[in-house]
Design goal:
By secondary structure, the protein is α/β, with parallel strands linked by helices. It folds into three domains: 125 residues, no CATH class; 209 residues, HAD superfamily/HAD-like (Rossmann fold); 78 residues. Helices cover 49% and strands 9% of the residues. The protein has 18 helices and eleven strands. Strand 1 and strand 2 form a beta hairpin. The longest helix is centred in the N-terminal third of the chain and has 35 residues. It is globular and about 70 Å long. It starts with a helix and ends in an 8-residue tail after the last strand. The structure holds magnesium ion. The site of magnesium ion has 7 residues, from loops.
Length: 423
C-alpha cells in the first residue's frame, strides 16, 4: 500500500499536467486566432483600402454579390474577433485601434503582443511530468529522415550532369524544371527529363533516358549516399509500438517515393498506417516500367497500410489530420503529432487540437543548397516567401520541441495504448 503522501503527490502531478496542458491549449487557441487575423482573405480590400477595418468599418460594401457576401463575412468575423480579444484581456481602445489599422498592420502588432515563446517540458511539483499519449501521428520528411539532404544529394549531381551533357545554361534548366514540378505537383518527378523543353529541342528523335543515363546514375548514386534515418528513429517508433500505441505517418510527398523510402529504412510494418497523396501521372507515351528498374510490387509496402489523401488537400489544411484523429483515437487529448514545419505541421496540429511537437532538429531552410530547392520547387511562390518569413521571424509557437532528436519523444510523453496485441 502506498503512503498517503505519495498518493497526494501523484494526484498533484496529474492535476498539474492537466492544468499546464490546458494553459498551453488556451495559448495555442489565442495564437491561432492571431494567425487567423493575419490571413489575407480579402486581398483586394487589404491592398487598396488602408482604412478598411477588420469589422468593415470605413469600407463600403462592394457592388458584386460575391464581394458583398465576403464583405459581410469579414465584418462578422471582425466583430467576433473583437469580442474574443476583449475576453483575453486586451484593452478595448487597443482592440479598436488594431481593428482600425487593418489586416496588414496586424503582423507587427501580434508579434509585439505575443512574441514566439520557447516550448518547454511540462513540470509539476518541481519535477518533469509526462502527459499520457495513446496515438502517435508523425510527419515523415525531415522528421524521421533528412529529406532535404536526400533530395539535394541526388538532384544537384543530376542537374550538373544534365548541364554538362546538354550545354543548356543551368538557370534556364532550373526555370523549366520549376514549371514541370509545379505542373506535376511534386519536386520529385520521375519523368522530369522527358518534359524539359530545351532537352526535347536538342534531342528530338532520341530517347532522353539513354542520352542522359549518366545523369540518372548520378541521381541514384547521390540518393544511395544520403538515404538514412535520423538517429534513434526506429528504436523510438519500436518502443512506442511496444507500449501498445499505434503509429500513423502523414506526409505530403507522393506515394511512390514515400513507400520506397519506408521500405528502404525498414519501416514497413513499424508504421501502422501511412497517409500520402497518390502518385503523379506520367507524360503521354511514358509508362511506369520505363522509369523504374524493378517490378512495381517491389516498391509497394507489404505490412504498413497505405492510404491516399484526397487530391489538393495539403498541410496545414487540418481536414486529413482531423479525420485520422477521429478514426483512430477515442480521446483527442492523448494524440501526439510531430513535424518539422512550424507553418504546416505545428499550425495544423494546433488547429486540430492535438498535442503538437516541433521537430526542430529537422529544419532545413538555412542549409546550403536550400535556395536550389526554392528555385525549382513545385511550391507556389507565395508559400516559398511565407516559409522564408516564418523561418526569419516565427510567430507559430510549438507546445513541445524536439531539439536533439526524435528519441526525445520518450522523455516528453508517457506512451501507453491498447494495441499490445498488434506487435
Ligand atoms: Mg516535413
Amino acid at each position: 500500500m502506498q503512503p498517503a503522501g505519495i498518493n497526494r503527490l501523484e494526484r498533484c502531478r496529474g492535476d498539474c499536467v492537466e492544468a499546464e496542458l490546458a494553459n498551453r491549449r488556451r495559448e495555442n487557441t489565442r495564437q491561432s486566432m492571431e494567425r487567423d487575423l493575419l490571413r489575407p482573405r480579402v486581398p483586394e480590400r487589404c491592398g487598396t483600402h488602408p482604412d478598411s477595418g477588420l469589422d468593415g468599418h470605413g469600407a463600403e460594401p462592394p457592388s458584386s454579390p460575391v464581394g458583398r457576401a465576403e464583405w459581410s463575412r469579414t465584418r462578422a468575423r471582425g466583430k467576433v474577433l473583437a469580442v474574443l480579444l476583449k475576453l483575453f484581456g486586451i484593452d478595448s481602445e487597443e482592440t479598436a485601434e488594431v481593428l482600425r489599422r487593418g489586416r496588414h498592420s496586424l503582423g507587427g502588432w501580434c508579434q509585439q503582443l505575443r512574441p514566439a515563446r520557447r516550448a518547454r517540458p511540462l513540470r509539476c511539483c518541481g519535477v518533469e511530468a509526462r502527459p499520457a499519449a495513446s496515438l502517435l501521428v508523425t510527419d515523415l520528411d525531415n522528421t524521421l529522415y533528412d529529406w532535404f539532404g536526400i533530395w539535394h544529394g541526388s538532384f544537384e549531381p543530376m542537374l550538373r550532369e544534365i548541364v554538362r551533357i546538354s550545354g543548356v545554361p543551368r538557370k534556364q534548366l532550373e526555370s523549366e524544371i520549376r514549371v514541370v514540378h509545379q505542373r506535376r505537383g511534386t519536386s520529385e518527378y520521375s519523368a522530369l527529363l522527358q518534359e524539359l523543353p530545351s532537352l526535347l529541342d536538342r534531342h528530338p528523335a532520341e530517347e532522353l533516358p539513354k542520352v542522359y543515363a549518366s545523369a540518372i546514375e548520378a541521381f541514384r548514386r547521390g540518393r544511395k549516399r544520403t538515404m538514412r534515418l535520423y538517429p534513434g528513429v526506429r528504436d523510438t517508433l519500436t518502443a512506442v509500438r511496444a507500449a501498445g500505441v499505434r503509429v500513423v505517418a502523414y506526409t505530403e510527398s507522393l506515394a511512390f517515393y514515400t513507400s520506397l523510402r519506408l521500405r528502404w529504412f525498414e519501416l514497413d510494418g513499424v508504421v501502422d498506417i501511412l497517409f500520402s497523396p497518390a502518385d503523379h501521372d506520367f507524360p503521354a507515351g511514358v509508362s511506369v516500367q520505363d522509369i523504374r528498374k524493378l517490378p512495381n510490387e517491389q516498391y509497394v509496402l507489404k505490412l504498413t497500410e497505405h492510404r491516399h489523401t484526397p487530391p489538393g488537400l495539403l498541410k496545414p489544411e487540418p481536414a486529413v489530420l482531423a479525420t485520422i484523429v477521429e478514426e483512430m483515437s477515442s480521446d483527442k487529448s492523448g494524440v501526439v503529432y510531430v513535424g518539422d514545419s512550424l507553418m504546416k505541421d505545428v499550425a495544423m496540429a494546433q488547429a486540430v487540437g492535438v498535442m503538437d511537437v516541433w521537430a526542430q532538429y529537422g529544419v532545413a531552410q538555412s542549409r546550403e543548397g536550400y535556395d536550389l530547392l526554392r528555385r525549382v520547387s513545385h511550391w507556389p511562390q507565395e508559400d516559398v516567401e511565407q516559409e522564408r518569413t516564418i523561418a526569419d521571424q516565427p510567430h507559430v509557437a510549438p507546445t513541445f520541441t524536439l531539439t536533439s532528436g526524435f528519441g526525445q519523444l520518450l522523455e516528453l510523453f508517457h506512451f501507453a495504448g491498447p494495441h499490445v496485441d498488434a506487435q
